[in-house]
Design brief:
single chain, 376 residues, alpha/beta, Enolase-like, domain 1, TIM Barrel, 2 domains, nine-stranded mixed beta sheet, 12 helices, 13 strands, binds magnesium ion
């Protein structure tokens, strides 16, 4: 069996054309730092992955931030202690050991760093096995519907223009469009509602609308606003309140027709069980780098299928397609092209679907420049 002989890191900051994560009308995130990881085995097989770190910087200058340094150091330290010299096909053992030995540090960067290593190991395992990731996970389907999150960057537009942008995305074949609702303090409620209505009118009844409320409103105000658009056949309202407010999530679920989605901010896998047992969520959004990589995703997916809850990944478009194709509980993948510049072969949606890649591993190929300049 192949053994892991090295785990390298590289840093790839990206500048966004438009900002994201508005607070009181101002964009706060314009750059995203990415830490890339490459695992190599003794027979020369490599596996790659990345984790991302949103930053408050407005430009790519001075990328030597504390978060990058902590993330890289965490990856290398975990690799040295738990991974290098180990059999590649031991992701479950490594998951258990890191959670037992490093768990007292708390979730957070340890989980992110472990997730990066785990994803890269799964990529390498697929290459050794000669199988695409989705087949290793169960091969549930070949094609995955994707929704676009590109309207996130168009929210400054008046309703009629936003409707036109939405119509263009629907014409490209996207199966759903996500947009913010109740997020911007400087946007009157009437305008927020008019935007959603304009999008529904522009795209017709057959394309889904998802609303991301980013947990910005008190629960009763959230319900009041959602009732203004609850008849528009909204596919889900995302993060209506923080994911740990289980009673409020249940209150929202019983007050609205619109299904409730949450979970992108949840660290580890155990809180998903609490959400499912409390019947507090219709769709579980999971963030691969917060749940323990692909090993953690398997646990969330298995749990979700036991509770008849559907799951959908937070960003990670390329990996997300493989995950949703693999799992029976997989619903849709998110299409957001911010990370496309990292890859030689970013995924492309055709008529709203992405076919699961048949190449071994995750199938993503990072551009050569990143690891060429890395230190081991
Ligand atoms: Mg969200």
């Amino acid at each position: 069996m192949p053994k892991v002989v090295s785990v390298e890191t590289a840093v790839a900051p990206l500048q966004l054309e438009h900002g994201v994560g508005a607070v009181e009308g101002k964009w706060i995130v314009k750059t995203i730092d990415n830490v890339l990881v490459r695992v190599t085995t003794d027979d020369g097989i490599t596996g790659t992955s990345y984790i991302w770190l949103p930053t408050a910087r407005q430009t790519l200058e001075t990328p030597e931030t504390a978060t990058i340094m902590i993330a890289e150091r965490a990856v290398r330290s975990l690799a040295e202690q738990f991974v290098i010299g180990e059999d590649l096909f031991t992701t479950e053992r490594i998951y258990t050991r890191i959670n037992a030995d490093a768990g007292h540090l708390g979730l957070g960067m340890v989980t992110k760093a472990h997730s990066a290593i785990d994803m890269a190991m799964w990529d390498a395992m697929g290459k050794v096995a000669g199988l695409p990731l989705y087949k290793m996970l169960g091969g549930h389907k070949e094609e995955v519907p994707v929704y676009s999150n590109e309207l996130l960057m168009s929210t400054h537009l008046p309703p009629d223009e936003l409707g036109e942008v939405a119509r263009g995305l629907a014409a490209k074949g996207f199966r759903g469009l996500k947009l913010p609702f109740g997020v911007f303090k400087d946007v009157p409620v009437s305008l927020d509602v008019a935007r959603i209505k304009a999008v529904r009118e522009a795209i017709g009844p057959d394309v889904k609308i998802m609303l991301d409320t980013a947990a910005r409103l008190p629960v009763d105000e959230l319900i009041r606003r959602m009732r203004m658009i609850d008849d528009l056949d909204i596919a889900w309202v995302e993060d209506p309140v923080p994911a740990d407010q289980i009673d409020n999530l249940r209150k929202i679920k019983s007050a609205l027709k619109t299904p409730v989605a949450t979970g992108e901010g949840v660290w580890g896998t155990r809180h998903f069980r609490r959400l499912f047992e409390a019947n507090a969520v219709d769709i579980a959004l999971f963030e691969p780098m917060r749940v323990g990589g692909i090993t953690g995703c398997q646990k969330v997916a298995a749990l979700a299928s036991e509770f008849d809850v559907m799951i959908t990944p937070h960003v990670y478009p390329d990996l997300g397609v493989q995950l949703i194709a693999g799992f029976s509980s997989g619903l849709m993948a998110e299409y957001l092209p911010w990370w496309s510049r990292l890859f030689k072969n970013p995924i492309e949606a055709h008529n709203g679907f992405v076919s699961a890649r048949q190449t071994p591993g995750i199938g993503w190929e990072f551009r050569d420049e990143f690891f060429a300049k890395s230190a081991t």
